[in-house]
Design brief:
Blueprint (H helix, E strand, L loop, with lengths): L8 H13 L7 H10 L11 H15 L28 H15 L1 H4 L3 E6 L15 H10 L3 E6 L6 H7 L20 H12 L5 H4 L9 E2 L5 E3 L2 E3 L6 H10 L9 H9 L2 E2 L3 H10 L2 H6 L23 E6 L11 E7 L5 E6 L5 H4 L1
Parallel strand pairs: 1-2, 5-6
Antiparallel strand pairs: 3-4, 4-5, 7-8, 8-9
Keywords: Endonuclease, Hydrolase, Nuclease, Nucleotidyltransferase, RNA-directed DNA polymerase, Transferase
InterPro entries: DNA/RNA_pol_sf (IPR043502), Integrase_H2C2 (IPR041588), Retrovirus_Pol_polyprotein (IPR050951), Rev_trsase/Diguanyl_cyclase (IPR043128), RNaseH-like_sf (IPR012337), RNaseH_sf (IPR036397), RT_RNaseH (IPR041373)
EC number: 2.7.7.-, 3.1.26.4
Length: 360
Amino acid sequence: MNWQEPKTPTEIRSFLGLAGYYRRFIENFSRIAAPLTSLTKKKVKFVWGPKQQESFDILKQKLSNAPVLTLPEGKVIAYASRQLKVHEKNYTTHDLELGAVVFALKLWRHYLYGIKFVIYSDHKSLQHLFNQKELNMRQRHWMETLNDYDCEIRYHPGKANVVADALSRKERVKPIRINAKSIEVKNNLIERLLAAQREAVLEANYPKEKLGVTEEQLTLSKDGILQLNGRIWVPIYGGLRDVLLQEAHSSKYSVHPGADKMYQDLKANYWWIGLKKSVAAYVAKCLTCAQVKAEHQKPSGLLQQPELPEWKWECVTMDFITKLPKTRKGNDTIWVIVDRLTKSAHFLPIKETYSSDMLA
């Protein structure tokens, strides 16, 4: 398939939408697609890495080599899987296995309801489920679902199902963590900061700088840089503010964050009077953001939510339904009046020729 690697979360959703249509014929679909699904979540930075590339390539290969659909005869005709929700990760093994059975029953209800069938599970205790006397609330709820079906649960040893057993017990390699603070960035930023701060503290430049704090409130770091509460003071001199704004928004290491996200990132390490205002102005002038990013705010104009009234019939809305067949009295229009607080409505028959003075 000539499907290029997704560049945005929207493109990932588009690809997963296509692949998800055929998920019944792709074994372990949820596990394969997990690295891609994680990039579509909110507040997750879009970073395309080896795991995402591998997941993308595997799904393309699976889609282009779909299994031949045949009559059952002991062969797999469909797969089903999904990722665990946050609260489900705390379930016991017994509940996870039982939950998987219930998930399959709900998914293929249109095939299984009304017929007798056998469920094979590698969790031995499930075969005695219908004879258990003590069940928790979650298990009782699932038992109500199971009682709707004519099914029998049988034990199938995991070792007999060598493929699934090997995959489920495969050891996951722990990723190597790298502390970003240990990376040494070789540039002249420190020298430029020192030079700019020395120029800013000159008595002649005080009126222009507008520190907003006294010089005693500033502290010296190990590099001799003036800081305020652990954040580096960036003077107006030296053009360093523009450098930092460009680095935080438009460099190859950033992804054009919004004003709020960019402000929080810069505020953690840097400080100057009007930092938030500078960030907002820089983002507003970014041509790339203006061309690519969608508008998420309410449309300007009159399309705003009006205030709720305090009393019934204090504020009403009205509309007219016209061009209706005439009644015996010659009425051809319905005047609809709705109270905004109680939503109670009145429907009055009138003539389309009535003026506003007559209606008042």
